[in-house]
Amino acid sequence: MAEKTVKVAVIGFGTVGSGVAELLLEDVDYIEARTGIKFELARIVDIDTERERHIVLSDGLLTDDLNSVLEDNSIDIAVELVGGTTVARDIQLKLLAAGKNVVTANKALLAEHGNELYAAAHKADKCIAFEASCAGGIPIISAIRTGLAANKIKAIYGIVNGTCNYILSNMTEKNMPFSDALEQAQEKGYAEADPTLDINGSDSAHKLAILASIAFGCEITLKDILIEGIESIDISDIRYGREMGYTLKLLAIGEKLDDGRIFLRVRPCFISSDSTLARVGGPFNAVSIFGHAVGQTMFYGRGAGMMPTASAVVADIIEVAMGNSIKLFKHVKLETRDEANDPIGNIDDLVSRFYIRLKVLDKPGGFAKICTILADKDISISGVLQHEEHNENNVVPAVVITHPTEQKKINSAIEDLGRLDIVRDKPVCLSIVDIPEDSDE
Amino acid sequence: MAEKTVKVAVIGFGTVGSGVAELLLEDVDYIEARTGIKFELARIVDIDTERERHIVLSDGLLTDDLNSVLEDNSIDIAVELVGGTTVARDIQLKLLAAGKNVVTANKALLAEHGNELYAAAHKADKCIAFEASCAGGIPIISAIRTGLAANKIKAIYGIVNGTCNYILSNMTEKNMPFSDALEQAQEKGYAEADPTLDINGSDSAHKLAILASIAFGCEITLKDILIEGIESIDISDIRYGREMGYTLKLLAIGEKLDDGRIFLRVRPCFISSDSTLARVGGPFNAVSIFGHAVGQTMFYGRGAGMMPTASAVVADIIEVAMGNSIKLFKHVKLETRDEANDPIGNIDDLVSRFYIRLKVLDKPGGFAKICTILADKDISISGVLQHEEHNENNVVPAVVITHPTEQKKINSAIEDLGRLDIVRDKPVCLSIVDIPEDSDE
């Protein structure tokens, strides 16, 4: 017999909601055997109560009335799967005020209004559990908060958007231009009809804000993060990068330097083709976490989709019901930031290597001009790639790899290079990230 | 101020013990900030109290008297890091009887005496936490029990012995024979002076017994596991495999088939060189877990070493102190097995593809004889590799890849092949494992 019964409501009966309902209905005995808790799916709320879903519900379970959850004191846990940052925010605040623990997959909401919601939860002595908000089925929040709890986290390097990874993998492996790769991602269901939030990096930034705030114990919002997407990636840069041993990935990076500064960015980055993350293909997600004791770890799996995300939601429901989440949640007291002593580093000061591609008029002295500009900015060149290519305009591509330098120096150099009379089009500049693999061969 | 103080004792002050002491002493404030718990390292017990360790302890902390822990009711958690299956067993039983929760990294002890110890813990209303027993710093036990709690686990494929992975990686990448690779592993500190338990597969089998019993909720001991090591792996097989797109790894595999049968084995296996696990190099560990909801996941990191293992031990100490471990532990009620209805499948019935290498006398009709034996056993050939090679004895290597077939059929065929007059030496037979990647490109 179950040690206790816990009633759960699901708000938002879309794809993930259906998956959660399926697990709660079909695996109730299995979960009880593993946890001692019998879960009862007590109510599903959605504005659309007519549409057919893949799962059959008993009569009266589905309603469009949120109050039926708010006013039912026997419901302990409510899962918010409405999405977005407006209605969902109101719903979460109402649920917390009504004494429900909240489980959610809503990364945008937490990234934008996390502090308000966490405060409301603390006030109500309830918790918000959000494993499903980052990297779908990969238990990465739990890994940071419990499995790696003894570690000071030094860095996070994440491939946390399956749409972008699928597109970049196809561009890389099949030599496909961006537009074709995006189209294929849409056909396969890996990209939405409007893929803007995925491909412009916003979705990854939402996840980075959540992961970094937990890992570094510091209030982090979207405006702390440099965000660049993959929309303007040219296939030729992927090819040149590969020639030099690099693979292009959209990375969400949070690094805490020894001096305490935290640098946060989402952008397409070249990483060594031999690195573990470079080998994460297709729609998969992976997050590498570096801890001071554990060294390098990586967590890999499906970052989206009905059942993988439902897997994370139900794991959270179990942890909330067991009383574990509330204890952890009490310690999500993110350091409020102090203007005088803000740990978030200015991205201008970030040090990285860079890949620069220029379209250059092929005439004597051209390369000397480029080198002079870089030298003037105190940037040293570590490699150059220029193939013998000729076109009607006598314009050739030249690729320069720099030694580590500050973002602000490279920005200034790129501006000057773009103004050179021998340079056609806007120069392309991509960061090269040296992930500290401690593989000590 | 700390919400509570928890006293911890460490029994066994070797490498991992020193790492645990370091984390508990140096990071006490950091851990308190994240958990609300102030840990006090109250006692360290070791038979050797004189040897210099890398960490300086305050006077009186180190003792050789276990009773000083057993009799101190203020100590709530004791970490057993003595190792082995005799003294350590006594110590754990005494600690439990004295009302301590036990944290351990001792995989051999749990694999051999887990049921006895779990029963003693249940009786004492205490728990045994053993994250550090499998795959070092990778939080894999926690992942199976909490992060993937909503999943029925279908399969585990693990690289869980860093020594073997380092040796096989060097054999593969540097074309190094086994003996040289082992020597290098010893020089680097990745292999013990006596590496037997690592290279003969026992260590991996201990970990598989623990992982599989948790994943499948079923009592599993070493005798349920087919165990083969890497001692007799010939570099030529690694090379032929690579030619055909396979990489050799020592895998610990637990699979639960749809009919409920569980197959368990540790042996060198060929896997596709494109698979995620094939790319795990050097001393790293990785465990792929397949869940019915989440699909494929993989957890990667350091499987051994002072600080990675200490990271897992301290994570467990925190979970025990927060009261989470005891709740989970109560549900480690492994199904006692019923002789009439044993879920453990007989390895003879295991279906796999196989790689067979024979040294064959190069004369007309030779290959026909081989094919006839395979055909007689109902084994179909999916590929053949025979290079034009000649040596003084007119003996050539022939490699045959089979379609999926039962282990007992292949065993019988290998026996018959070995008896053929044209076959020199013992035939080599290695399993080819098709890891179900759901990468749906």
Overview of this protein structure:
2 copies of one chain form a homodimer. Chain A has 441 residues and is an alpha/beta fold. Chain A folds into 3 domains: 4-133, NAD(P)-binding Rossmann-like Domain (Rossmann fold), CATH 3.40.50; 140-301, Dihydrodipicolinate Reductase, domain 2; 348-432, Alpha-Beta Plaits. Helix content of chain A is 36%, strand content 26%. Chain A has helices at residues 15-26, 28-35, 67-70, 87-97, 107-124, 140-147, 162-174, 178-187, 196-199, 202-216, 235-243, 306-321, 324-329, 366-376, 407-419; strands spanning 4-11, 37-45, 62-63, 75-80, 101-104, 128-129, 153-159, 226-227, 246-256, 262-272, 284-291, 295-302, 351-361, 381-385, 395-402, 405-406, 423-432. In chain A, the strands form 2 sheets. In chain A, strands 7, 8, 9, 10, 11, 12, 13, 14, 15, 16 and 17 form an 11-stranded mixed β-sheet that branches. In chain A, strands 3-2-1-4-5-6 form a 6-stranded parallel β-sheet. In chain A, a hairpin with a 5-residue loop joins strand 9 (246-256) and strand 10. In chain A, helix 1 packs across helix 12 and helix 7 packs across helix 8. Chain A is elongated. Chain A starts with a strand and ends in a 9-residue tail after the last strand. The mean pLDDT of chain A is 94. Chains A and B meet through helix 2, helix 6, strand 12, helix 12 and helix 13 of A and helix 2, helix 6, strand 12, helix 12 and helix 13 of B. Strand 12 (295-302) of chain A pairs antiparallel with strand 12 of chain B.
